[in-house]
């Protein structure tokens, strides 16, 4: 979670690297997903550090406006550093979901809590938790209070409704099952792994 300005820089740098993009005027104008990701991080920073309401409200409005435009329905503080949202289009994630660093996620994905009415303060107990270096293929559905390990690949259109806590699994099918073991997260981990000293790319 972004707790200070240095964290903000680290998260944005990691996101850009995972997406294989540079922060430039051209990309800012022409790439709406890049713009959304950066605005999401700025909004997280403003809320987590309890900036004045006159700063938080405009950033939240900007975040919500871009969400609607791109077809995204998600909250703040879901992703660790290094998220790569591959395309704009339908993407629905329960705001109490938590996903580790270096997540690569495609359009049509729906990640939701259990299909029950619960006390809002306990809602997080009923939402998914995913580890680091997880690849989520197009159209995947992940529901309920489930846990998925690190370095896992979730295949296109998979329906995941139970735990897969072991690291390095290839999960696919309806309902999802393990197709292979020993995944390394190669689909999402690039040579430039997340580092605290990373600086924003410019140019």
TrEMBL record:
InterPro entries referenced in this protein's UniProt entry, alphabetically: Hexapep, Trimer_LpxA-like_sf
GO molecular function per UniProt: transferase activity
Keywords annotated in UniProt: Transferase
Domain of life of the source: Bacteria
4Fe-4S recorded as keyword: no
Alphabetized PANTHER family for the sequence: SERINE ACETYLTRANSFERASE (PTHR42811)
UniProt name for this protein: Serine O-acetyltransferase
